[in-house]
């Protein structure tokens, strides 16, 4: 079911002496495609839950319209909209068993929709199996863990076969490990049922990992709507850039002059030829993964300390133009050369550098390039092995075709014929196309999880064993939900 919000506005009357009305949602317009999971993301008080309650029908909009498909549901009461709602506090009936809680919505059906006891029992069992709680049907809510209670709430919403599923911060009461497991369950359930789902959260990791679409909000105003990786890689303004990312983006005072970007009195990047350069001060945002550790790099900084986490190394440093006390960069552990103190130099990745107007925070879109073209770096083993035909071509150039092929199989022990999600990789100068052949539905598996530096996806081999594959996000061009790598 496609959801369309058309110029939706919600105002609440003011309180106190000034009695100034509060605009919780301001001229909100966007579309959620049929069968997709959209996350409403923003800080507390930005209007996420208010928007969700208007979609559900618990709140009436001050102005604007809501459409489910071609039907205008703005004036319909909640029970006639065909929505399922999961609340933050679960809202389970403590005196009822799990089975009774799940069955409760079905008992309120009237007329031609009324179900027999046998049909209700069958529906309850199907919903319980979907969320893996069929063995808990006789228990009371007090006898369940937080994660199990959340699954009961989801099953209760799904049992009446809603057209739209609404989730209002359903994971905020769970501990960190349980939140991770439950959000994966929500994504699995949504993919299996293909119900259009709206998920409210202030946690960017939750939104990035399970959503098809992210809607970023600030003070009731829509900031950006796009896919998770697109919002991260191409933020509409400084607020979006700073809100998404862990660790957060690093902000600097900079200047555009002489066709170059200057930070702390040093040119760090140049503006591409043909670009119209508005000279003057700018705010510069650099993602933590946007730094290249390089002796003689364009950006000179005072080293503070390294933080080694295994796969990555966080280099903490100071720069006099930074808007925070310290700056955090993230580099591969393979590139770490154990600098202990003194100066640390970086070059910058132009695609990870963003310019904003100092006052308004609006994005200044300029194509940036390195000051001098660096020598091409060799492909990593993961990149070479993952691109069809590239491993053989590279190996033939060095006379080691058979050895390269054997290493590829050892390092990525996943059958290429049953990978449910496929990624086309760009190995520096070459682009290799992914060939579609296998069905994701038949093969099983999870959608890729996209984050700041790596893209993680899960695949199944011929024996049904799962494997988690991690690739650098910079190397991932796109992913296909069915096919062959």
Strand order in the largest sheet: 21-20-14-11-12-13-22
The biggest beta sheet is recorded as: 7 strands, antiparallel
* DSSP strand count: 28
Task: Look at the structure and give the CATH class of the largest domain.
Answer: Alpha Beta
Unreliable stretches (pLDDT < 50, length at least 5) are: 374-445, 477-483
CATH fold description of the largest domain: Rossmann fold
User: How many structural units, i.e. domains?
Assistant: 3
Distance between the termini: 32 Å
What number is the mean pLDDT? 79
What gross morphology would you assign? globular
CATH architecture label name of the largest domain: 3-Layer(aba) Sandwich
Number of helices: 12
CATH superfamily of the largest domain: P-loop containing nucleotide triphosphate hydrolases
Question: What percent of residues are in strands?
Answer: 25-35%
Q: Kindly state the percentage of residues in helix.
A: 10-25%
Overall structural class, as computed from helix and strand content, comes to alpha+beta
Q: Roughly how many Å is the radius of gyration?
A: 26 Å
């Amino acid at each position: 079911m496609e959801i369309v919000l058309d110029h939706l506005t919600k105002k609440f009357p003011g309180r106190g002496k000034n009695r100034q009305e509060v605009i919780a949602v301001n001229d909100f317009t966007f579309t959620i495609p049929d069968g997709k999971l959209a996350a409403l993301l923003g800080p507390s008080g930005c209007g996420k839950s208010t928007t969700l309650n208007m979609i559900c029908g618990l709140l009436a909009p001050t102005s604007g319209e809501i459409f489910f498909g071609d039907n205008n549901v703005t004036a319909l009461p909640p029970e006639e909209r065909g929505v399922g709602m999961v609340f933050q506090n679960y809202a389970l009936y403590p005196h009822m068993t799990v089975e009774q809680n799940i069955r409760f919505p079905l008992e309120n059906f009237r007329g031609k929709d009324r179900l027999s006891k046998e049909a209700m029992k069958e529906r309850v069992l199907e919903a319980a199996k979907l969320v893996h709680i069929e063995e808990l049907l006789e228990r009371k809510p007090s006898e369940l863990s937080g994660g199990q209670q959340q699954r009961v709430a989801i099953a209760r919403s799904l049992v009446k076969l809603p057209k739209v599923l609404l989730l209002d911060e359903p994971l905020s009461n769970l501990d960190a490990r349980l939140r991770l497991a439950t959000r994966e369950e929500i994504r699995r359930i949504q993919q299996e049922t293909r119900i259009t789902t709206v998920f409210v959260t202030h946690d960017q990791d939750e939104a990035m990992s399970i959503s098809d679409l992210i809607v970023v909000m600030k003070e009731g105003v829509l900031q950006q709507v796009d896919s998770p990786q697109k919002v991260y890689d191409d933020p509409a303004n400084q607020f979006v850039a700073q809100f998404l990312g862990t660790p957060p983006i690093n902000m600097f005072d900079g200047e555009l002059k002489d066709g170059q970007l200057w930070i702390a009195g040093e040119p760090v990047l140049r503006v591409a030829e043909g670009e119209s350069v508005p000279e003057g001060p700018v705010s510069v945002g650099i993602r933590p993964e946007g730094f290249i550790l390089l002796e003689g790099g364009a950006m000179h900084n005072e080293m503070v300390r390294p933080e080694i986490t295994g796969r990555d190394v966080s280099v903490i440093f100071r720069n006099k133009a930074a808007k925070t006390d310290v700056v955090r960069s993230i580099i591969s552990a393979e590139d770490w050369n154990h600098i202990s103190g003194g100066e640390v130099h970086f070059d910058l990745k132009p695609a990870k550098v963003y310019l904003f107007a100092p006052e308004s925070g609006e994005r200044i879109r300029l194509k940036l390039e390195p000051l001098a073209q660096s020598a091409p770096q060799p492909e990593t083993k993961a990149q070479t092995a993952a691109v069809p035909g590239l491993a053989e071509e590279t190996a033939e150039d060095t006379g080691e075709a058979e050895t390269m092929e054997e290493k590829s199989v050892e390092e990525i022990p996943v059958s290429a014929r049953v990978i449910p999600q496929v990624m086309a990789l760009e190995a520096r100068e070459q682009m290799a196309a992914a060939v579609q052949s296998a069905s994701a539905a038949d093969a099983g598996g999870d959608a890729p999880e996209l984050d700041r530096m790596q893209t993680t996806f899960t695949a199944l081999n011929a024996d049904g064993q799962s494997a988690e594959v991690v690739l650098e996000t910079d190397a991932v061009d796109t992913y296909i939900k069915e096919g062959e790598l």
